[in-house]
Amino acid sequence: MQDLYVGTVLAGLIFLSSVLSIELGLSAAIIEIALGVFAGNFLGVTALPWVTYIAGFGGILLTFLAGAEVDLDVMRAKFKESLLIGGISFLAPFLGAMLLCHYLLGWEWKAAQIAGVALSTTSLAVVYAVLVETGLTHTPVGKLIMASTFVTDFGTAAALALVLLEFNLNTLWFALISLIIIVLAPRIAPRLFARYGDRVIEPEIKFLFLLLVILMYFAKLGLSHAILPAFVLGLVMSRIFQKNTQLQRKLRVVGFAFITPIFFLNGGMKISLSLLWSGAALFLVLFAVKQITKIVGVYPLAKRYLPNEAMYTTLLMSTGLTMGTLSSLAGLEAGVIDQLQFSVLVAVVVASAIVPTSIAQRFFHPHHVLVELQESSRPALVEEAAEE
Q: How much of the chain is in helix, strand and coil states, percent to nearest 5?
């Protein structure tokens, strides 16, 4: 009965989160975490083994999808700028939060590293959604922000993999299998998709899921985590998804309908409201550290490359959600951080998805960029009309 009760409650919360996301205009992930907190603290919902497994797969799927969103052409065109902005966007909060947690708050060194990783992130989901909704996706500022976000997320994924790495003989097998999959998958997938794609049984999605499960299995054997190879796998397959947007859409539908909501709900269920209340001061300190280090690190470079949109860029780079939640949950499940530390870190991550975005949209939105884009496209439209 407990399995059925948990499954029924989670299914109801997944549907409710979708409705609330549309009505409130907030990311579904934020609402799923909040409803997970409610379920864990008031409804008696616990993370049963099947919930834990699906949530773990959901985290790896999210990481893969983040890598698949990368536009390699934009990365190449904006390599220097995105590397500098994205690199400092990762490094400044990582070092700031890690050093503060270890030397001032007395956290164990590895727990402080998890805090640094969790607070170093920039939310690809939030940034992408904001840029699409505001029409900035294909503008120079939008392209540079997206490219910089990819660099930050790559740094986060790499850092988390290194922090949680515990070497044994199977770690070599994990590294070898990961390398083989990353090298061969982009070569095999197009042929497989051409032969078996566009069928109701969706063999191409099953193939991608198989690769991710293999990475999870060998990561477990190697006392490591599949985040970094999953991100890189998405990265090297991004061109395939750009050419096959229908496949990308179907993968999102399958993932976002049930799998990734379980990940966020599971994360919320592990947050203790009583512990979070007792750690309110810690929440304020860590939120301030994330925002201050992001602003101090990113703003000077943003001012150099995007002088008129520097603060807007900086605030969007100060967001966090998916990778921050994933990093915190990985640290908790590995026994590196305790439930209080986890509760506070996830609360900071969620707050960073809302506060900087709201301020950026309200006070620093670069409306002039859209005006300039419209004016530059107007002569082309006139010329096309004249030809017709």
A: 85, 0, 15
- CB neighbours of residue 14 within 10 Å: 20
Residue 387, in any domain of the structure: no
> Within a domain: residue 386?
no
What is the enclosing helix (H) or strand (E) of 197? none
- The residues, any chain, with a CB within 8 Å of residue 313's CB and separated by 6 or more, are 85, 141, 144, 145, 148, 298, 302, 306
Give me the number of domains the chain comprises: 1
Alpha-carbon distance values, 51 to 57, 107, 310, 346 (Å): 10, 30, 42, 19
Q: Measuring CA to CA, how many Å separate 252 from each of 68, 232, 248, 257?
A: 11, 18, 6, 8
Dihedral over Cα of 83, 89, 90, 91: its sign: positive
Q: What is the CATH number of the domain that holds 325?
A: 1.20.1530.20
Tens-digit pLDDT profile for residues 239-256: 888 888 888 888 888 888
Q: End-to-end CA distance of the chain, in Å?
A: 68
Q: Cite the beta strand spans of 160-301 per DSSP E.
A: none
What stretch of H or E contains 71? Answer: none
In this prediction, residue 221 carries a pLDDT of 87
Q: What values do phi and psi take at 205, rounded to 5?
A: -70, -40
CB 39 within 8 A of CB 265: yes
pTM as predicted? 0.78
pLDDT in tens, 71-82: 777 778 878 899
Q: Which helix (H) or strand (E) holds 48?
A: none
Residue 349 in any domain: the answer is yes
DSSP conformational letter for 255 = I
- In which domain, by residue range, is 317 found? 2-381
State the angle between helix axes of 260-269 and 322-333 in degrees (0 to 180), rounded to the nearest 10: 60
3-state secondary structure 76-139: HHCHHHHHHHHHHHHHHHHHHHHHHHHHHCCCCHHHHHHHHHHHCCCCHHHHHHHHHHHCCCCC
Give the C-alpha separation, 118 to 98, whole Å.
10
